[in-house]
Amino acid sequence: MAESLPLEMLTYILSFLPLSDQKEASLVSRAWYCAAQNALREQPGLTSLDLSGCSELADGALLAVSLGLQHLRRLSLRKLQRLTDAGCKALGGLQELRSLDMAECCLVSGRELAQALGSACRAPPPLASLSLAYCSSLKPRLELEHQAMGPKELSPKPQGPSLLMLRTLQELDLTACSKLTDASLAKVLQFPQLRRLSLSLLPAFTDTGLVAVARGCPSLEHLVLSHCSLLSDEGWAQAASSWPRLQHLNLSSCSQLTEQTLDTIGQACKQLRVLDVAMCPGISMAAIRHFQAQLPQVTCIQSRFVGGADLTLTL
């Protein structure tokens, strides 16, 4: 009887079943299999999926997710260490994706990821949050192929698959993507709506990159630059004025910074609420007190190991 029903009708009927029953129904016949697959695609279903730490999952799992859960808005693939560029192609089918966490997906390196993200962000709502933390295989220029242009051809629009396609991105985590350089970051980090950014543990990140990021991401409210040991007072003197909205700033283990940077931040970042200068040996307790006088609204200044002392100062 059911075999004689139109596919659309069978799909409609199966859409009322829970996922486990749909799976069983798909084994009845080819027609039921097609109907069950259609029902899975069409139902609002799951909007958030966390696969973090499922270390045995590989590219096929992401393909299955993209076919069966097309209404996902939040997807975490953290520590899927078998996931590669080939699996990233499937992300293009998740047109409603708004938050993607691929931290520690260490085999992901590039072009397919960029193309998939570009495809996923063409339809609203746009991708708003992206984490690629500890993706150490991401090479200079993020392997997201923003084509090199001459000085007379500079444009804010991407010429190929690039993070620049994610124009409405609000959160980005590139922690420990250790192969990234000033040149790649300057070209790619141009997000006027970006609110949160982490560039921790980037050993090649210097003042040049800092100034470029300041110009490209002027709306930052939360910035983490811990363990960027090449940053200096001179870089902050040029960058700080671009971030009047900054509220949370982590500069822990930026070993070259001195109280001059605190003065600069105090003058430019009047909305600051949290500052972390842990293990910055060039910043003394006296400098912290002076900073507190400049910004009395700052309620917490974390200053462990400031000047060699093991302290946590909350003001």
UniProtKB/TrEMBL annotation:
<dbReference type="InterPro" id="IPR001810">
    <property type="entry name" value="F-box_dom"/>
</dbReference>
<keyword id="KW-0833">Ubl conjugation pathway</keyword>
<dbReference type="GO" id="GO:0019005">
    <property type="term" value="C:SCF ubiquitin ligase complex"/>
</dbReference>
<dbReference type="Pfam" id="PF12937">
    <property type="entry name" value="F-box-like"/>
</dbReference>
<dbReference type="InterPro" id="IPR006553">
    <property type="entry name" value="Leu-rich_rpt_Cys-con_subtyp"/>
</dbReference>
<protein>
    <submittedName>
        <fullName>Leucine-rich repeat-containing protein 29</fullName>
    </submittedName>
</protein>
<keyword id="KW-0433">Leucine-rich repeat</keyword>
<dbReference type="InterPro" id="IPR036047">
    <property type="entry name" value="F-box-like_dom_sf"/>
</dbReference>
<feature type="domain" description="F-box">
    <location>
        <begin position="3"/>
        <end position="38"/>
    </location>
</feature>
<dbReference type="InterPro" id="IPR057207">
    <property type="entry name" value="FBXL15_LRR"/>
</dbReference>
<feature type="domain" description="F-box/LRR-repeat protein 15-like leucin rich repeat">
    <location>
        <begin position="197"/>
        <end position="312"/>
    </location>
</feature>
<dbReference type="Pfam" id="PF25372">
    <property type="entry name" value="DUF7885"/>
</dbReference>
<dbReference type="GO" id="GO:0031146">
    <property type="term" value="P:SCF-dependent proteasomal ubiquitin-dependent protein catabolic process"/>
</dbReference>
<dbReference type="InterPro" id="IPR032675">
    <property type="entry name" value="LRR_dom_sf"/>
</dbReference>
